[in-house]
Design a protein that fits this description.
alpha/beta; Rossmann fold; Arc Repressor Mutant, subunit A; 2 domains
């Protein structure tokens, strides 16, 4: 898999490149700004982008991700952030499509989790950082349908948001896949997700975390 990295911090940029190469990824370039990333778009299969890059250090990475996916619909992008910025996460996932991820930079140190997340995004999955999920959940309104979920359903939805499939969720929770499927069915019902949304229901469930 050919990957481009866009990260303005030189130490982290080189560290990411070294880490991904050691895990079998073909890092075609590691750049320090969004414009250079976009010039490399046609030569790569996926990207790892920092949210904040020159010149304003606000949301250049996010804008670059959106531009990339306008030019190449479905282009896999894993966005990294130093802090929990839920408005950026919401904006990134607003299109309701796969091939997107939002992780905190601290997750990079957990190599297996980080590389698994990148692979899931490259395969069309949606990945949210568990810390982002935790903070968003704590901010829900009293009348939010999320509040009607049981503790186990919260766990299942959180793992879904991380981009895990039913088999992996079952293994994490030490339950059967059938039990996981039943929990997911109840989650969809409580969040008002129609059975006709089968292609994107998991993504829509993740987005339910982000609505204010």
């Amino acid at each position: 898999m050919r990957v481009v990295i866009a990260e303005d911090d030189a130490l982290l940029r080189e560290g990411l490149a070294l880490l991904l190469r050691s895990e079998g990824f073909d890092v075609v370039a590691a750049v320090d700004n969004a414009d250079d990333f976009l010039t490399l778009l046609d030569d790569t299969d996926a990207a790892v982008l920092d949210v904040r890059m020159p010149p304003t250090f606000t949301n250049e990475g996010l804008k670059a991700a959106e531009t990339a996916r306008q030019r190449r619909p479905g282009f896999p992008v894993l966005v990294l952030s130093a802090y929990v910025e839920d408005r950026y996460a919401a904006q990134l996932l607003a299109e309701g499509a796969g091939g997107l991820g939002y992780l905190l930079k601290e997750r990079v140190g957990k190599v297996t989790e980080f590389t698994d997340a990148l692979r899931r995004v490259a395969e069309g999955g949606t990945v949210m950082d568990p810390e982002v999920i935790s903070q968003l959940l704590s901010r829900r309104r009293a009348d939010d349908p999320i509040r009607t979920l049981t503790p186990r359903e919260h766990e299942v939805l959180g793992l879904m948001a991380e981009g895990l499939d039913n088999d992996t969720i079952a293994a994490r929770l030490v339950v059967t896949e059938t039990a996981v499927s039943k929990h997911i069915g109840k989650i969809f019902m409580k969040l008002g997700l129609s059975t006709s949304d089968s292609g994107h229901r998991r993504v829509l469930a993740v987005l339910a975390y982000l609505r204010t």
